[in-house]
Amino acid sequence: QVQVVESGGGSVQAGGSLRLSCAASGFTPDYFAIGWFRQAPGKLREGVGCISSRDSFAHVTDSVKGRFTISGDDAKNTVYLQMNSLKPEDTAIYYCAARYPWYGSDCSRDVHEYDYWGQGTQVTVSS
Asked: Where is pLDDT greater, at 105 or 50?
């Protein structure tokens, strides 16, 4: 059974950093993609970035480019979202989700492409 569990959220001041983790389990030896999403109060869930396990190809949305990076640790089956230079507008519940199986070298930030979702972790950035 595929499961993804986020951790690492919290409260920081603007300009600070946080690292979120997404621990994935239940994958047989197959390829997959992990997406990071966020949802602020009153807003739609948006894609922050994603990574494909086949080639470890990762990309993030323009609003966080240069501040957020996505990486993976194959040995731990864990994907990280490193968030630097955080802004108050980054405040949201952050989710990771898995698209499995996925054999592509690229990945999608579309919420509809993902099948397995974590419970979310709150990130609050104060000014």
From this structure: 50
Distance CA 61, CA 118 (A): 20
At position 5, the amino acid (one-letter code) is V
Task: Tell me what pLDDT residue 54 has.
Answer: 87
Alpha-carbon gap, residue 53 to 114, rounded angstroms: 14
b/e per residue 76-85 (b: at least 16 CB within 10 A): ebbbbbebee
Judging by beta carbons within 10 Å of its beta carbon (0-12, 13-18, 19+), is residue 5 exposed, middle or buried? Answer: middle
User: Smallest Cα–Cα separation from 48: which of 8, 97, 12, 116?
Assistant: 97
Percent residues over pLDDT 70 in the chain: 99
Which H helix or E strand runs over 37?
strand 33-39
Contact 81, 72 (CB under 8 A): no
